[in-house]
Amino acid sequence: QKPPLLIVGEVFFLVFYTFELCLKLCVHRIFLFIGDEYRWNIFHIVLFASSIFDFIAAGFSRGSFQIAIMRVLRVFRIGSALRTLRAVRAFAELRVLLMCIVKSCASMFWSLCTI
To answer: Which tens digits make up the pLDDT trace of 3-12?
Structure first.
């Protein structure tokens, strides 16, 4: 059983990404699938669909329905969200801080592996 706060957060982000996807479809229409970044757009749609499926499947299964691929897709969702950090290039100090965090992730990964 998931904590109620986690469920509320998941529903919030699903509604937010549903709204974002609807706005993108209204604004870009067919160019969402044939524009310069069509690969990223399709990737986001697949991640969104997997999130919806994961949420619905978790509601019907009462915790016993575990799909490993959904966990992998969650990692991709995080990577997709981190892609938006490209806009940080304009802020030099923030970019240095971000690069320090990114560079330390490999060390943290190996530290966690040894634990």
So the answer is: 888 788 888 8
Query: What is the signed CA dihedral for 32, 34, 35, 40, rounded to 10 degrees?
Result: 60
Instruction: Using DSSP, state whether 64 is helix, strand or coil.
Output: coil
- 76-102 tens-digit pLDDT: 666 666 666 665 556 667 777 778 888
**Residue 6 CB coordination number (10 Å):** 9
Model pTM score: 0.51
70 Rama sector, left if φ>0, alpha if ψ -120 to 50, beta otherwise: alpha
Burial 52-80 (b: 16+ CB within 10 A, else e): eebeeebeeeeeeeeeeebeebeeebeee
